[in-house]
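Board notes (copied after class):
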Amino acid sequence: MKSIEIYGTGCQKCEQLYENAKIAISELGLTCDIKKVTDITKIVSAGIVLTPAVAVDGNIQFSGKVPAVEELKILLQEECKS
């Protein structure tokens, strides 16, 4: 099962990224562990400078932008192949 982390402090963009990720996962029929990371210490420790950010299995994929549902679906399809 893939682990998806949404990094952000709870701003509107961070919430939108979380919602987009949930939609992408649902539309692809995937089972993923998705969690929000809001602790600033953990965000900085992950090497994230700009939020929101999304990581799949600990690898930062997007930072400083809100990828569209379609972008996330492409990412998740690629990640699930590996």
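Comment from the instructor: The helical segments are 12-28, 40-45, 69-81. Residues 12-28 form the longest helix (17 residues).
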